[in-house]
Amino acid sequence: MLDNIQSNEILERLPAHLQQYIKPQNYDEYTPINQAVWRYVMRKNVDYLSKVAHESYLEGLKKTGISIDSIPNMYGMNRILEEIGWAAVAVDGFIPPAAFMEFQAYNVLVIASDIRQLEHIEYTPAPDIIHEGAGHAPIIANPEYAEYLRRFGEIGCKAISSSHDYEVYEAIRELSILKEAEDTPQEKIKEVEKRVDELQNAEVKPSEMAQIRNLHWWTVEYGLIGSLEEPKIYGAGLLSSIGESKSCMTDAVKKYPYTIEAAKKEFDITKPQPQLFVTPDFAHLSLVLEEFANKMALRRGGLEGIQKLIDSRNLGTVEFSTGIQVSGNFSRVIEHEGKPVYIQTKGETALSNREKELVGHGVSTHPEGFGSPIGSLKGINLAIEDMSPRDLRAYDIYEGEKVSLEFEGGVKVEGEIITGTRNLQGKVILISFSDCTVTYNDEVLFKPEWGRYDMAVGKEIISAFAGPADHESFDLITHTPSTTTIKSKKTLEREELESLYESVRNIRNGENTKFSLNAAFDIVRKHHPKDWLLSVEIYELAVENDPKLASEVKAWLEEIKKQRPEVSHLIDDGIEMTETKMVTP
Known about the structure:
The chain is an alpha+beta fold. The protein has three domains: 9-162 and 205-213, Phenylalanine Hydroxylase (Orthogonal Bundle); 298-466, no CATH class; 492-579. The protein has 22 helices and 17 strands. The protein has helices at residues 9-12, 16-19, 32-52, 56-63, 74-81, 97-105, 129-139, 143-156, 163-180, 186-200, 208-221, 236-239, 244-247, 282-293, 297-300, 302-312, 389-394, 492-508, 517-527, 533-545, 547-563, 568-583; strands at residues 87-91, 108-112, 223-226, 231-233, 254-257, 275-279, 316-320, 324-336, 339-353, 356-357, 371-373, 402-406, 411-422, 428-440, 443-446, 453-456, 461-466. A hairpin with a 4-residue loop joins β12 (402-406) and β13. The radius of gyration is 29 Å and the shape is elongated. Fe cation binds at residues 131, 136, 221. GO terms for molecular function: iron ion binding; oxidoreductase activity, acting on paired donors, with incorporation or reduction of molecular oxygen, reduced pteridine as one donor, and incorporation of one atom of oxygen. It comes from Christiangramia aestuarii.
C-alpha cells in the first residue's frame, strides 16, 4: 500500500499491522460538488475561526499546505508534513481506536479520505477529509500540541479494551456510515441508533480504552483552550464543523475546566455536544494524560492488570519485574493474599524482552499457551532475579540440577534445569526445565509428558497492556470491517449538476468552459431548483464581473431560502462572505 503514497520516511517506519488500514486516496474520485463543499466550509472556517480558533490554526494551515480552494492531495500533504516530522495516510472511515492511536504514536495523521455530502455540510457523524485534513492537520504544526498527540497515541494504544468496546465501535461505525449515506431509510437509522444507545447506556464498568477514548474526544476532537470566559477552539471536531464551531461559543454549551474527570464523561458522536472542557494551555493536556497513565495497568501491573487482560478477551502482554514479557490471550490468574502467583495464557503465546521476541520463544514454540509462577520462593528472602551466581549455585538453581522450587502462594515447580536466559543486566529472566511437573496445591498445571517447561522469572508483574510486546510475533493482518463507506449514487440529473459545478469552478480558475455564468445559472435555476451552493458560487463570481447577474442570483437565493428554510443560514453566510470580501480593502 505504501507504494501508492508520496515517499515520507515516517511512513516507511509503519509496521504491517497498521499498513493494512491504509487505502489509496483516489483523488480523481472527488467530484466538483465535493470540491465546492470543501471550499465553502474552508472559506467559512477561515473567516470565522480566525476570530475564535487557537492562534496555531491559521499558521498551521500555511505550514501544512492546506488550500482553501481545493481538497488536499495526500501526496502534497506528505511532502509538507515531513518538514514538521509528521505524515498522513488515507483510511476508510472509522478504524479501531487502538490502531488510530498507534498511528499517532508513529507521528502519522489518519485521514478519512471521503468527504461529507452537501446535505451534511455543517456536520457529519462520519470522519471525513474536512474533519481530518482541515481539523487535525493545522494544529499539529504547533510542536507542543504535536508532542501531546504523539504521546497520547503511544499511551492510548496500550490501553486495555473490552469486548463491549468493540461492539460499541462497530455499531457507531455503522451508524455514521448510514447517516452520511444518501437515501438511508429512517427506520434503519433508528434501528442502529437504538443499538448504539443501548450499548452506550449498558451497565458495564468502563475499560481503560473507553476512558482514554473519552479524554481523546474532549481534547483532540472537541477541546477548547484558554479561560472559561473566553476560550479558543483547538479540537478538530469543532474546527471542521461550521455549525458547532459557532454554537460551542454560546452559553447553551456548558464549559468546564479540563481535568482527569473528563475520562468519565461519555459522548455521543452523532449529535452536537452539550458541554465542553477547557484546558488553560497545551502543557496541561500532557499533565492530565500522565495522571491517567499512572492509573493504567501499563504502569501499575499487578493482579488488577492481569484481570483486565483476562476480561478483555484480546491479545495482551504482561511484563515481569525482570523485563521478560509474555504476550497472548490470558485465561487465568491464581492469586494469593491479593497478589498474582501464577498466570496462564491459551493459544499462541510469545515471550519477549524489551519488545523483541526471545529467540526460540515465538508462537511456534508456545502454540497452545504458556503458564508461569510469579513471586519469591517460600522461606527465602532473596528473589531469584536478585540472586548472584553464587546464590543461585547455593540453592541448586543451576544447569543439570534437579530442583523443587516452592513459591509463596502454593505453586511448586519440580524438574531438571536445562538452561537459563539472562537479560543485559545479568538477571535471570527465564529458566527451562525437562521432566517437569508444576502444581498448585493438588492441581497439576504442567506435566512432564508435555515437553520442556519454560518458567518466566520475576517477583512481580509491573505492567500489563493491550497488544503484543513484539508485533512481529503474531499475524495481525486480520482487519475486515463489517461495514464500508457508501458512495453517492450516479444519476443523469446528478451528472448534469456536477458538470455545472465543474464549469463554474473552471471559470473561477480562468479556464475554458462550455458554459458561461449566465448559462450555468439559467440551467441550475430551471432544472436543479433545490441546489443552493452553486448559486452561491455564481453570485460570488458575478458580484465582481456582472452586477445584473449578481442581482438576479441574489433574488433567486432569497427564493430558495423560502422554499428551504433549513439552509437559509448557509445561504446568508455565503452571501455575507462574498459581500464582506468586496468591501474589505
